[in-house]
Amino acid sequence: MTAANLLSDRRAILLLGLLAALAAAPLAAGDYALSILITVLLQAYLGMAWNVMMGFAGQFSLGHALYVGLGAYAGGALFAHFGTPPLVGALAGMVVSAVAGSIIGTLGFRFKVMGVYFALLTIAFAEFTRVLFDHWNWVGASSGLFLPVSHSVNDDFWNLRGSATMFYYVILGMAAAAFLFSRALLGRRIGYYWQAIREDQDAADALGIDVFRAKMVAVIISASMTSLGGLFIAFYNNNLYPESIFSMHRSIELMLGTIIGGIGTLFGPILGAVALTALGEALTVIGAHIGIDGVKQIAYGVCLMVILAFRPGGLWPWLRHRLRLDGGRR
Amino acid sequence: MDATFFMNVISAGLLTGLVYGLMALGLSVIFGVMRVVNFAHGDMMVVAMYATYLLYTKLGLQPLAALPLVAGALFVFGYVLQRVLINRFLGVTEHIQFLLLLSVAIIITNVVLMVFGPDARNIQLDASFESYSLGPLVLDKVRVIAAVGAGCVAALLWAFFRYTTTGTAIRACADNPVGARVVGLDVEKLYAVTFGVGSACVGAAGCLLLLLVDVHPHLSSDYTLLGFIIVILGGLGSLGGALLGGVLVGLSEALSGVLIAPSLKTMFSFGLLILVLLLRPQGILGKKP
Amino acid sequence: MSDHTQNPSTSKGINRRQFATTVAAGALVTAGGLPIRSARAATPLKLGVLLPRSGHLALIGQACQRGIDVGMPILRDMGYSIELMNADTESNPDVGRTQAEKLIREGAHMLLGCFDSATTLAVAGVAEQKGIPHVVNIGSEPKITEQGFKYVFRNFPSAPTLGRQGLMLYKDMFAASGVTPKTAVLLHINDSFGMGMLGGINALMPKLDLPFTIVETIGYDPKARDLSIEVAKAKAAKADFTMVVTRLNDAILLVREMVKQQVETMGITTPGSPGMYEKQFFKALGKYAEFCTTNVPWFDPKQEVGNQLIHAFEKAFPEESCDINVSFSFEAALIAADAHKRAGSTDPQALTEALRTTNITKRANLGGAITFDAKGQNVNLPSAVVQNLGGKPTVVLPSQSAEAKLAFPMPGFKNRT
């Protein structure tokens, strides 16, 4: 999809309808449905953040858990130790993540570490940081960091303490903002640069694009966005362990939705998050009926494989075509 | 901490490193030839470890005797996997390949979990608790056996690539797939053989590793990652590089464990990886891309 | 996910069904006659059980589940009426949270779980929001009862308590054996449990006036593949005895490596971690598993309920290890059932009130009655010294519950037959 297309009317209507439905969801949905929706939106948000780096600029990161963890720990630790409001913590987390991203980016891009090697470099940094945090006592080391739980009935937005409904609106707002931001990025010059680099870096270089700078911008934006997702996780979960927040599983989970949904597309991360969560929940129910632990994951693996085999470009480009949202083009 | 102590630590690190190296060889072979990153590597090794476990408990076969059987079984597994599945995905981008092998890994892990349950299994040889004493040096017996086994398998692999027609043809494929096709090589078949040989290496490594560690279904992802560190350190596609990388990781784990803190030792492996990626992205013994 | 079957044991198909009949029969025999059917609460308690039955904690999650499944016929014979709703947390706190929401939506009156502290905290948060009581079977993170949750009840010691009790028992051990070592080397896993224990040990060592000092502390990564370096370091410390804080797999690696490197100390002891009393440990190490000691809360060999549980368990799962995962999960179900019976309703408030006034004397584990303090913590959970003797964990201290005499210092590895 190129960014130049303005949203067609149909698409705009569809999006607004979706947003309205999501905004109204807490009225109808029970707490369980709400917690599922929070999971979906969080995954969609993180997927969109990863998409900026991989989908737009073509830089394969397998270590995005690093930025999730840095954002979570920056906001969480400041709040736990000094009662710093999450908005300030968010800023700190974004700065830390941007710095970490630019270090990895500078090293990787300057030394021409590319493709799989770059992906492994990002894993290495994430794992390195995990072990580091396991030994850093100020953030609780491997015992974990705990955010004070409040017992007030009222939602306190500025301190991100409150009900599931409040967290739902926070993540909905974040996801909507990320969507609009991604769309805006693609419509700007940097968006075109990224696509040029993604398709053919040498050609982009020959055209006079400052490839290094463009890639760095992508990494920094993606890292900062991801760190906000980490902050949300910190305040939603109230406890943080290096082992789980920096884990490679998180990095994988985070990109899965986007790849399944359609990498490089605006709507892919959202569709992918919905599809994977729906798949997961459906398999949980079926798995419970079969009653053998592990069946769920096997079916999950098979479904992933089937999607990859038949829709390697992701579900969204295909669905978009079926819904005729792309004017009949593929 | 005296000199003997360091010698013991270093020799243990060296021996473990050789087995690590063997495990990474399979990964290196597959990537070197097909440019496919096998993220199901650790899982295949876990399967091999369980196979060895079964052969030992059901048939009383010692791991060293089981090695050819397990390696052979894994060869077939790898050959079929490549033919049926991976071959369709050779041209696609890295992340799709990655996800594909990841789903293979998820399936293997959970099938193993269903069949064998979550308990850790190990085999109990008389040698498991024995050690050789060379003067002040105490060498763990099974570690020595495993390291020697690793060396032998690596030598066989080297001979295969150096002296057999198939091996030479595979090397030709790796250097220039288009050219190989032009001269009439059956590239698809060679790729399948490569995947099989890579898998057989993993199988052999699993066999030997069962002497040293207990197997459980969730062991796989750690070893996949470890495999990657090693191959990249040594240089993807280089056989000697993989062994060297393994030894380096074994040594760095040992020394950082002693000198700094054991719980920090994995950090040093990753640190080493970062360093090598930056200073020599193609790996210590890798060829310039 | 949840199985709404009257008999929870049938939810896993034929195998489970077969074993359920065995268990039921076994329980009938051990109960010695017809089951007593006392006044039942009008509606059975729907108990949502959240355990990590798959994922990296599957081993322990399944052990806990077995404890509850085996315990169900026993509880029924005691006149309790429970329906289980089982959910798998997949060893993932996020999954645990949504599964808890789901169980509550589907009508669970009470939650039980979840073994690992991170998931337990996530589930406790959900329970707190919904006002649904949550009984913790196992989970040693102090924060679980220190965060001010009103609906959380924990019948398991926190890591610092476990550490303190474990350390105190060393004095008794030395008194009983008449040998007092001067130095110890401490090897510990560097995860949340290990660090919690380490914190407790470091804080208490100076206060408890113990006769020995820890000369070297060695932490290792939970993902460590082999522990040869750690053990080499421990050997170099030349301490009188070894103290460890482990999980299962690393405990096996550790002891095997000690045998290989010929690290002979007076004993391999733990002030309160799992690992060394488990069946896997015995299977993997054989004669070298002998004489290791663990200071943990344990089955009370003098309690009838505990013996019933062991009996039923060994009948149903002869291959599995009947340890504290089993007994504490069973006790959690017992606590839930008891509160339900006393409350006489399934109203969450009434259940919570009833839990607060819990006072159970017929229990499976050592210690006095099960009661909860204002924070929902059972503070009456003493540890015992359990030594591996004759291929099974055996209570050796305190002496009133002892089944055998403590062997300390232990015979060297070389002299074992």
Layout of secondary structure:
The complex is a heterotrimer of chains A (330), B (289) and C (417).
Chain A: H1 9-28, H2 31-56, H3 65-82, H4 86-110, H5 115-134, E1 145-146, H6 164-187, H7 189-199, H8 201-206, H9 211-237, E2 239-240, H10 242-245, H11 248-261, H12 268-290, H13 295-310, H14 315-322
Helix pairs in contact in A: 1-6, 2-6, 2-9, 2-11, 2-12, 3-4, 3-9, 4-9, 6-9, 7-9, 11-12, 12-13
Chain B: H1 3-34, H2 41-59, H3 63-84, H4 94-116, E1 131-134, E2 137-140, H5 141-163, H6 165-175, H7 177-182, H8 187-209, H9 220-234, H10 239-259, H11 265-279
Antiparallel strand pairs in B: 1-2
Helix pairs in contact in B: 1-5, 1-8, 1-9, 1-10, 2-3, 2-4, 2-8, 2-9, 3-8, 5-6, 5-8, 6-8, 9-10, 9-11, 10-11
Chain C: H1 13-31, E1 45-51, H2 58-77, E2 82-88, H3 93-105, E3 110-113, H4 117-130, E4 134-136, H5 143-146, E5 152-154, H6 159-177, E6 183-189, H7 192-208, E7 213-220, H8 228-237, E8 241-245, H9 248-260, E9 268-270, H10 279-285, E10 293-296, H11 304-316, H12 324-343, H13 348-356, E11 384-389, E12 392-397
Parallel strand pairs in C: 1-2, 1-3, 3-4, 4-5, 6-7, 6-8, 8-9, 9-10
Antiparallel strand pairs in C: 10-11, 11-12
Helix pairs in contact in C: 1-2, 1-11, 2-11, 2-12, 3-4, 6-7, 9-10, 12-13
